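Example (one chain per record):
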Amino acid sequence: MRTLTQSSHGDGLARSAEGSQEEKWRRILRLLTTGAKLTRFDVERYGDHCFNTNVSVIGKKGITISREPATIDGRFGKIYCKRYWLEPDEIAKALRLLGDRP
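Predicted structure:
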């Protein structure tokens, strides 16, 4: 399975371990297949500044992304956002969509 790393090129793009760029929705879906529960602030380090849009794009491809309200501490107080993740059966579907499993 390919893993993502933050870019050291200063271009804001995440790359796979092999060094190739991926479309944003694929990068985000790959992150979600790790079992992580992510907010929009978590994915910024991977170059995604429109997380809710990419969640929508992934949903239109047939993957159901679970979500719940989240409150996190911000610089000036509480921030209300959503936390997103994939349930185990959706991880399997996502891996097939990404081509990581037959």
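Caption: Residues 6-14 have pLDDT under 50 and may be disordered.
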